[in-house]
Predict the 3D structure of the following.
Amino acid sequence: MRLNSFFESLQDFFYATFEFIPVVGTFATYFFSFALAGFFFYWLSVLAKQK
């Protein structure tokens, strides 16, 4: 295997990986937003029970 073909295959791998990242990023943003909102409202309910 020539060194040129190795770097071309590495380029193809990273190109495919970076095409997939925006989809994961959008999902992660929504997931963490809803999770933090859920934990926030749970914490508010815990605080309300203490009064």
The mean pLDDT is 90. The chain is about 95% helix and 0% strand. The CA atoms of residues 2 and 23 lie 34 Å apart. The chain has one domain: 1-51.
